[in-house]
Design a protein that fits this description.
This protein is α/β, with parallel strands linked by helices. It has helices spanning 17-28, 38-41, 47-57, 83-104, 121-124, 130-150, 170-173, 177-182, 193-204; strands at 8-12, 32-36, 61-66, 108-117, 154-161, 215-218.
């Protein structure tokens, strides 16, 4: 039902996890997709990395999914968090998004769609991961700002996943951790990468043509907010 034939797309963090699943679904829908990863395209927290990516893209884009980011599995209370950890998380999760959007936003074709990826941490916070929650909360605010700024030419939305079955969360799932986490989720399981990629692709498609500035929660009911 979703056809993206003839569309040019770019997905950051597109070589693993949610990003890789998104790349695969976009390609299945007919899009020509560039999967961006640190190994292949450098550090997007460095403005020169984003500028190089812009040169590699060349022409216009119809779809931009900004999915990359970091999360440190070991929790740290804010009073013990170092300046280096705080700055590193915000650099990787927020500054890099700014750099990508500043370079690629002007490349978006009329009628294009941008989807940013945040987290449930943006909606409810996350104790002992305040750096991560702050960075993702900023992504939510950035989504709403850009939705108005880029309208009516380009739609800008956000997907906020909860727990997902990706490499980033491997440590919390170890031992009995996964079962304990799933007990807190009304739908009874963590999301697969494809569970999150599907809503992303929907927001990129013409089925979502009258949706912009939306924060779509994909968390199995673990955080309920409008």
């Amino acid at each position: 039902m979703i056809s993206l034939a003839g569309k040019r797309a770019l997905v950051t963090g597109g070589t693993r996890g949610i990003g890789k699943a998104t790349v695969e679904l976009l390609r299945a829908a007919g899009a020509d997709v560039l999967a961006v990863g640190r190994a292949s395209h450098g550090d997007l927290a460095d403005p020169t990395g984003a500028e190089a990516l812009g040169r590699a893209v060349g022409g216009s884009l119809d779809i931009l999914v900004v999915n990359h980011g970091v999360w440190e599995a070991e929790g740290v209370a804010l009073e013990r968090m170092t300046d280096a950890q705080w700055r590193s998380t915000l650099s990787q999760n927020l500054d890099s998004v700014f750099h990508v959007l500043r370079v690629l936003g002007p490349r978006m074709a009329d009628g294009g769609a941008i989807v940013l990826v945040a987290s449930t941490a943006a909606q409810r916070g996350e104790a002992f991961h305040a750096d991560y929650a702050a960075s993702k909360g900023a992504i939510v605010a950035l989504t709403k700002s850009l939705a108005v700024e880029m309208a009516p030419r380009v739609r800008v939305n956000c997907v906020a996943p909860g727990w997902a079955d990706t490499e980033m969360a491997a440590r919390p799932y170890a031992g009995a951790g996964r079962a304990a986490i799933e007990a807190t989720i009304p739908l009874g399981r963590v999301a697969t990468a494809e569970d999150v990629a599907g809503p992303i692709v929907f927001l990129c498609s013409n089925l979502a043509r009258h949706i912009t500035g939306e924060i779509l929660n994909v968390n199995g009911g673990s955080v309920l907010c409008g």
